[in-house]
Fold these 4 entries.
Entry 1:
Amino acid sequence: MSQKPKQSHGLAVCPGCAEPLDSGDRFCGACGYDLSAVPAAGEGPDRPTVAIGTPVNWPDAPPREPGSLSTMTQHPGDLPGTDSGGHDLPPAAAPTGDFELAAPDPRAAVRVDDPVVAPAAAQAPAPEEAAHGPALCVACRAGRVDTDGYCENCGHAQPRERDHMERELGGVAAVSDRGLRHHRNEDAFAVSSTTLADGSPATLAVVCDGVSSATRPDEASAAAAEAAGAALLAALPRGTHPQQAMHEAIVAASRAVNSLAEKAADGEPQRNAPACTIVGSVVADGLLVVGWVGDSRAYWVPDDRAAPAARLTEDDSWAAQMVAAGLMNEAEAYADERAHAITGWLGADAYELDPHTAAFKPDRSGVVVVCTDGLWNYAEGPEDMARVVPADAADRPLHSARVLVGHALDGGGHDNVTVALVPFAVPPQGAGPA
């Protein structure tokens, strides 16, 4: 979707023409923009934050502040996450594979999204097909569907298995839909539940959005979702801190996507390698943990709608970069046609892996909305998302995920739409073992 080099003047792309910049540039080589006028990091206006308290300690939480959440969200790159002792998480391991990654040409590192694979159980054939062979045509209900996916009677193309996927497991649910404009679904998800080392429950959701300008984006998102979900299911029962487990899951997803890249004729990794974004959430032992790379998002929506909702992630995107540099306000940046160019993604041609993680401790029950931009384009602000999330989302996550996908389709369905809902329950005050 966009360039990812990190520059001394704080910009990866020119604010005038969106062309990639080099660290030593004073003027943009494409349009002549004077980069010396750009505020240095920390000098511009503060970027919007969710002002909700102080960092969570593990396993003890700090005293709760009034409001819905008690932990400040971290900006991309500000804080890589901490372990149970409050120390920085270990750096991401180098990508593995049968080739070494060369530094890509900045002008080739452009990612633009045009606008699940769910676990195997979610893709099982329909009972009718499993028991009776090929399914009947969805259009004429008379012809058999051939191996190419067309009706032998009326010729109607049949929906592919990834065109619409749903899953509910252990109180967490997800729905993914191709949308109304795309010819295939390039989103993917993984949802599951497990237990921590002490036997307490944990639920997780991972949502990935394939980058449409890359090769095989549908494979990239599927590989990332599967790898991240598997990593979380392996790490949490071992007693790994949920925030560190999320960090490690994103690293695992990155390796899985990198492994899809092919060598170019010169032996280097292909420039336009398979790529995707990722966002995930874990709810465990009173903590709400999120992690992400790219512009897929997580929102917090409390059951009590009188309390404020919050966006828990901050996009790796051109728009967010313009806001952070103080060159535009948020409304102006997201109205620009370059808003959805991303500056962070998973893929062999990404400049570096920079997973973002944050931990929160809500003081009331609610639900975490984990979604691709196919949904949040139609409910961008936290208050907008809270308005479209059904009031009983925590009790009926699958139904509510369907409602949210329907909201995006009703709005135009310009992109693939994927949403997972992860309920977060806080016991009533005074509740405890009898």
Note: The radius of gyration is 22 Å.
Entry 2:
Amino acid sequence: MSPFPGPHLPPDRPMLPAPRDIAGGLGAPASCTVTLWFCPTDALAPAVAATLAAQWLDEQEQNTAERFLFERDRRQYLVSHVLVRRVLALECGIPEAESVIRRSPHGRPYLQKPAGGLPRGGPEPDFNLSHTGGHNLLGVVRRHRIGVDVERLDHGDQEFDTLVHTFAPEEQEWVAQARPGQVRDRRILRLWTLKEAYAKARGLGLGLSFGAFSFELAEERGVLGFRPAHGDPARRWRFMELEPAPGVLAAVAVVADDGEEPVLELRHGFPWARSAPRARAVLGAARAVC
């Protein structure tokens, strides 16, 4: 795999360098664009986030927000969900408060297409959201499926050990070869974010056993090989790893057609307006692992 990881489909159908280092890493022209927004929760002041949420979020989202015990968790929920509605408004032209967001039986959110079609036309977007202590990541693509995950490296060792037990045997062996500490923790989190991104793109989340598929990773960054879950052709997938902030790892998984080279555009902050991407890079296909 190269360095780096539509119309709405039925809900259940089946490390990069830091951004400044990838800006020149473009390959051949791509036939689709993946937009990635990395938005710190602090990008919106608490009062601003609350005001936008009161105007934009639907009743279910409002009720969910009220159930959080800790203010920091409620604030992150509000910021991440107004982020979704703002980005969809920029993509599709639907006002934030008028977007109807449904969930599949496995809990994957999707935009319900308006009866009259999208105001700005074009294929329907697929989107995926992830967040971790103070950071939010949203991926959007047209015509395909996308999954994203973002995690912090400052978890406890016990939690990392729990994650390893869910991996495929060959992945556990690769983790065990690393010396304890940050090197080992980074290997674990690289695998975990890629697995989360792939499972979320499949629409299955934790309903897909993480031992049923595996990744072969380069020492520093990049996916060398991929063994998909049973019945899922590896040639469809493109992956990318990122570290959008120090100590914060992220992964992207996108379905792509044969010969297609999707381009990822990474943007930072809250999308008050359309902004130039912070970086661009081509998502590459990993060789199949038998």
Note: The chain has six helices and 13 strands.
Entry 3:
Amino acid sequence: MEKRTDLEPVKLLTRAQLASLREVSPKTLANWHSAGTGPPAVELRGGLLRYQVRAVMAWSQANKKDAA
């Protein structure tokens, strides 16, 4: 099997880290996750949720609202 050399590490954020960056509470992120409206999360073993930086950036761009 050929080894891939084009793999980049995936940066994962905890809910607390993402909440701090987005200036919302972790509870808000939890509510968004439950409602299916927040950034996509990855579930790791033991039910831990993490957020991929790239996915959060794409979600933010897709859900950006113009300031009035």
Note: The longest strand covers residues 49-52.
Entry 4:
Amino acid sequence: MNPTAHIAFRVAAAFVVLGLGGALISALVGLVLANVGPAAGASVSLCAKDGVVPAGGKDYLAQNNVWNAATPQCITVGDQSLRIESAGHDVSPDGAPAATPSLLKGCHWQECTDVGGLPVQVSAMPRVTSNWVSSQVDAGVYNAAYVVWFHSGPVAEGTPDGAEMVIWLRSHGGVRPGGVLLAREVAISDARWNVWLARDQGRVRITYERIGEATAVKDLDISAFTGDSVGRGVVSPDWYLIAVEAGFNLWRGGAGNAIENFSVSVDDQKPRRALGTAAPAPCFAALNVEETWTGGFRAVVEVTNVGDSPVQGWILDWTFPDGQHVEKASAAQVTQSGSAVRAVGSALEPGRSTSFDVVGSGVSPGIVSITCTPA
């Protein structure tokens, strides 16, 4: 743990609450935080499973972060760079990854960097952008992704209690995001993204899966993704963005993957209010067309309870766009009036999902927006 950096981040958090500007915060933190870590251009080897070191100075940290396996892993850390030298992992891609080696700016649990404009409250979030250049191998099972952490206060004492926002840039080996597919091809920050929602370890996790893989991004608009998550009721405007991480989730292998450069910029001179008003819903649903034929289709509707308590039942409402009609459905009571469809289902525990088939007539409906209401 880096106690000096932790103190500095707490000082910055107090200034955020008092409403002081980023330039003044940086100047004051400079009096608290000594220069830590190797000098620019130097490198250090890190093999401890929970090891954390400065990544070329006080503004960024590198973490080995082997958290779901006992297999060995070593990384080399440079100035805002990281390379995975060895990784002996072999866990099922159907579950959690073995490790998440990454670079970060902000506060991951109690490991903190210099302030760098963070934390910021979502309700008055400035433009937050990031650059990331990576090199990725064509072996193993892994993904390359950002993880953005939100917490109810400006500093998390332990696990953040807000949402986990994942920006998924590329994967290898067939791994896919978990949870319910909420929307397809959403335009954010000069690309299109499929949006997934899951509940994991007591938190809601929203994942933006890029359509068309990328190994590098420039000026990726973290604040725009946050605005979309607020509009979906996943992130509260009262929460704080406390950390931005970039790295690799490793299931099998992973050696050779590298972050050539990573940076995060906070433009606190141009505050911008996040779009939408959070109205967190305890359940979400998505319709995915699985089969089509002339004059008909079969779709699967998946419902997930993302709340903290059971729902005694659920009601789904959606509208078909082009005159489609439900001919039959399984495991749910489905009725239709004109283009409006309603499905009713039974109790669902927190974090659990259920699904049912819908066979319909007409052309494939494509993306359908579904409203899920507890019964």
Note: Confidence is low (pLDDT under 50) at residues 1-18, 20-37.
